[in-house]
Structures are given as C-alpha cells and as structure tokens.
C-alpha cells in the first residue's frame, strides 16, 4: 500500500570526527617546499645515547677519549593518499554545492581512520608502519599467544620502560580503541584535555582504524590487544583536492544522470627511530 504521507527530507545529524586518535597526539609541521609529497627524511635528535665518563684525578697518562658516533641514521617516511567521495543522481538536487560538501565530508569524517589503518598495517605501501617485523616484541615470547599477554599494567610498564631505555624524549603509545576501557579501568591512562596520557605523561593514540595485528601480521587473540611504542609522530598533509572540476558539472554523466566526485589529500606520517610492541590482556 502506498503511503499518503511520505517522509519529509531533513538535514542529517551533525557528526564530529572521533577524538583521542592518532591525530590528537601528532605534530603537524607545515612545509613551504611541496617536495614533501615525495616522502621526507630527517636526522633525529633523541635517538643517540648520552654516555658516562669516569674521572680519576690520580690516573697517570692520557685520559680515555670520549667516543661520539659520526652523525645519526636518518629517519624516512613515505607518502600515501586518502580519499572519499560521493556518487548520486543529479536530478532533484537543487543545491549543487551539497554534492561537493558531501564528498568533502566523506573524506573529513573518514580520513583519520584511514590514516590509522595505513600507519598500523602499511596497507597503502607506506612506511614506517606499526605492525612491522622490525618491531621489538616486549613479551617473554617472541611470538606471544593469549597465554603470553601482559596484563594492562604490565604492558604499559613494558612500553614505558622501552621508551625510557631507548629514547631521549617523550614518545607515543598506540593502542586499538577497544583497549582503552581496560587501560582506564586499571588507571593506566588519564584524560588531559583532548589527549589521553599515561601516568608518566606519554600520549596515547586510540586507533579506530586498527585491525589489532601484531608484528608478524597475526590478529591478536580474543581478549587481547597489541600496543606499540614509537618516538613522536609527525604528520604532513596537503590541501583537500576535489575532482573532477568544475564541480559538479565535470563529474556529471549525461548517460546515467549521475554525478561522481572524489575528495582526496596526500599524507606523510613518520616517527623517530624506535618501535616496540606488547601483546596486552584487555579483559577485566
């Protein structure tokens, strides 16, 4: 039976991108030179160790020489592209700008999750990534199973100890969003404005775009989550590009009366010189 009172079309509820993800803990350098889109490299400050020097006022002869390595190994990060879009029938659209807005919103509301997936897995051909064979596994077993998972307190302790022993500054801890309730229950994270932090002040990124995989690419066993520790994260990104232009005429297919637009932008995500991993028990 056809309705005699069809539903009225209204505006969709306002949506905000989720908080406490990777974007909340990242640094956002702005480059005047557009060549960052080819990838970047830098010489880190805090990856080299400071050393002790014994003093013996009574020793004879020349004192031992203070040893300093030549330079610091460069850190590299490669580019990736994140895109969203909108595909619809053009007839009946009285406000063409709404089509472009929906393409842009598709990107704006999904790009953090997409970037997090790329950073966790390297799925966009990007490097570095978290679930990498290069990660130092901090559990007792090199390829831990559910029985080898550290309790939430032990996992954060292991990641903080790793950061303290291998890096001269404040790093970042990366976890799936599903691990946050357990970390909060055990009082391992606190809210600091728009950032989650450990008791020691280390920022924690809660990933929505995380497949919860380990350094061998294996999914975490049920009731567990992989957590990673890195140096500070730097994200470079370009402006949003909407194609084709002009909008929406260039995207209109007269054969189908449909319009198709893409909104995309380039990213380069990298961090300083270290990568630790711990399998964590998130049961309560």
Automatic annotation (TrEMBL):
Which domain of life does the UniProt lineage start with? Bacteria
Protein name in the entry: Uncharacterized protein
Q: Can you name the source organism?
A: Nonomuraea salmonea
């Amino acid at each position: 039976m056809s309705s005699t009172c069809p539903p009225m079309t209204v505006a969709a509820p306002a949506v905000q991108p989720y908080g406490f993800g990777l974007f909340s803990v990242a640094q956002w350098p702005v480059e005047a030179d557009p060549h960052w889109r080819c990838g970047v490299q830098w010489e880190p400050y805090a990856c080299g160790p400071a050393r002790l020097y014994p003093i013996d006022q009574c020793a004879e002869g020349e004192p031992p020489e203070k040893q300093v390595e030549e330079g610091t190994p460069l850190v590299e990060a490669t580019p990736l592209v994140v895109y969203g879009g909108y595909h619809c029938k053009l007839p009946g659209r009285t406000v063409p700008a709404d089509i472009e807005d929906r393409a842009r919103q598709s990107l704006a509301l999904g790009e953090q999750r997409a970037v997090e997936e790329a950073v966790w897995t390297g799925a966009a051909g990007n490097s570095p990534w978290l679930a990498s064979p290069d990660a130092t596994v901090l559990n007792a077993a090199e390829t831990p199973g559910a029985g080898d998972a550290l309790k939430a307190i032990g996992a954060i302790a292991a990641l903080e100890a790793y950061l303290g022993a291998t890096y001269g500054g404040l790093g970042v801890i990366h976890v799936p969003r599903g691990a946050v309730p357990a970390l909060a229950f055990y009082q391992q994270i606190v809210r600091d404005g728009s950032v989650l932090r450990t008791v020691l002040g280390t920022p924690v990124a809660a990933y929505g775009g995380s497949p919860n995989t380990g350094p061998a690419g294996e999914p975490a066993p049920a009731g567990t989550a992989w957590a990673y520790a890195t140096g500070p994260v730097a994200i470079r990104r370009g402006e949003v590009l909407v194609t084709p232009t002009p909008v929406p005429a260039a995207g209109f297919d007269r054969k189908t009366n449909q319009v198709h637009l893409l909104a995309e932008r380039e990213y380069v995500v990298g961090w300083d010189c270290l990568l630790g991993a711990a399998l964590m028990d998130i049961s309560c």
